[in-house]
């Protein structure tokens, strides 16, 4: 897992640089910079809207006595998507918008659900409540 993360931290910025240079050569430096700023602003607004929707839904589910598990995964996806959108680059922007749009976020949510379930079953994640281990 850590090796994959390290690889992503090296490969993704290198690819972003390549795409930014190609974009600057194709459409110009100023339009490239403006496009980066625009995606950051649009992403921040979308992250705020989706985050507030997730909070409202979690509050309603909690008030009805339900555990807001799916909404928490939405919140994780929205947080990651918002942070990724604030980093300059087009590759990360695509991934960020993927996580912020509810229809596309569902597939990543399903992936996170499987990862969490596998971690709990393998014993890598342990829950404590009231001093008892679950």
Structural overview:
- Helix 2 packs antiparallel against helix 3 (69-86), helix 3 packs antiparallel against helix 4 (90-100) and helix 3 packs across helix 5 (102-122).
- The chain is an all-alpha fold.
- It has a two-stranded antiparallel ribbon.
- It is 83% helix and 3% strand.
- The protein has helices spanning 2-27, 29-63, 69-86, 90-100, 102-122; strands spanning 128-129, 132-133.
- The mean pLDDT is 87.
- The protein has one domain.
- This is Membrane protein FxsA.
- The chain crosses the membrane at residues 26-47, 67-88.
- Pfam families: FxsA.
- Keywords: Membrane, Transmembrane, Transmembrane helix.
Which tags fit this structure?
single chain; 134 residues; mainly alpha; two-stranded antiparallel ribbon; 5 helices; flat; transmembrane helix; Membrane protein FxsA; FxsA; membrane
Layout of strands and helices, then pairs:
Blueprint: H1 2-27, H2 29-63, H3 69-86, H4 90-100, H5 102-122, E1 128-129, E2 132-133
Antiparallel strand pairs: 1-2
